[in-house]
């Protein structure tokens, strides 16, 4: 297969190989370390608390960077838990709990900034984003408790992280003069979380009707 792929693909694979080896070495070193998934989760919490503090100070660009780093930690802890075998049931619970706290803290700081600037509508939208994010998470948790997998919807946590990160990093007037992207990101997140909640409710309704029909036929 490799001999028939031609020189261009061979060159690309050669370029990818050092990066793959580096990732493997980093992964193995991380697994062999004493670092636990819970420690990574706490690092994510610290990163998001720093982001919230920077938002309150008005340093949106650096707040966005801190939020990105903290969110990356949030994605690493689950993968690291599976790869290293160090995961626990409490660790999974802690990870999900901290995710909700971190997102809420940063959005609360953003809402405070909006309110301080007199942008009351944008501040209210932050509250709706927090509510929508909680409902996106709750509908999945409740569905899975009923035996239904529920990962559908457009505003999953990675999507929300990307939107909020872009709003923070590109929201300052020093980046794009006279054009604040942060309120736009909040409005989009409010709409998408509401749509995602409806998508998940409809999905669970459909799946539970199938289960009810199967139980009735039995």
Features:
mainly alpha; flat; 7 helices; disordered N terminus; Four Helix Bundle (Hemerythrin (Met), subunit A); 218 residues
Can you characterise this structure?
This protein is mostly helical and 218 residues long. The protein has a single domain, classed as Four Helix Bundle (Hemerythrin (Met), subunit A) (Up-down Bundle), CATH 1.20.120. Helices cover 81% and strands 0% of the residues. It has 7 helices and no strands. α2 runs parallel beside α4 (89-116) and α5 (120-145) runs parallel beside α7. The longest helix is centred in the last third of the chain and has 37 residues, at 181-217. It is flat and about 65 Å long.
Give me a quick take on this structure.
By secondary structure, the protein is mainly alpha-helical. 81% of the residues lie in helices and 0% in strands.
Unreliable stretches (pLDDT < 50, length at least 5) are: 1-14
Determine the CATH superfamily: CDP-alcohol phosphotransferase transmembrane (TM) domain
Return the CATH class.
Answer: Mainly Alpha
Based on the coordinates given, report the CATH architecture. Up-down Bundle
């Amino acid at each position: 297969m490799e001999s028939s792929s031609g020189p261009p693909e061979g060159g690309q694979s050669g370029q990818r190989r050092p990066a793959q080896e580096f990732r493997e070495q980093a992964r193995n070193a991380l697994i062999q370390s004493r670092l636990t998934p819970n420690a990574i989760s706490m690092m994510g919490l610290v990163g998001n608390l720093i982001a919230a503090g920077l938002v309150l100070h008005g340093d949106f660009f650096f707040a966005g960077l801190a939020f990105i780093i903290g969110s990356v930690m949030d994605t690493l802890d689950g993968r690291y838990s599976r790869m290293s075998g160090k995961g626990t049931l409490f660790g999974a619970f802690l990870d999900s709990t901290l995710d909700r706290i971190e997102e809420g803290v940063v959005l609360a700081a953003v809402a405070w900034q909006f309110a301080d600037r007199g942008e009351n509508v944008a501040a209210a939208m932050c509250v709706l984003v927090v509510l929508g994010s909680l409902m996106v998470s709750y509908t999945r948790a409740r569905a899975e408790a009923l035996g239904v997998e529920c990962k559908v919807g457009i505003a999953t946590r990675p999507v929300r992280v990307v939107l909020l990160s872009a709003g923070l990093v590109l929201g300052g007037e020093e980046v794009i003069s006279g054009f604040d992207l942060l309120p736009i990101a909040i409005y989009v997140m409010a709409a998408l979380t509401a749509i995602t909640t409806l998508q998940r409710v409809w999905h669970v309704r459909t799946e539970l009707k199938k289960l009810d029909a199967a139980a009735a036929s039995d």
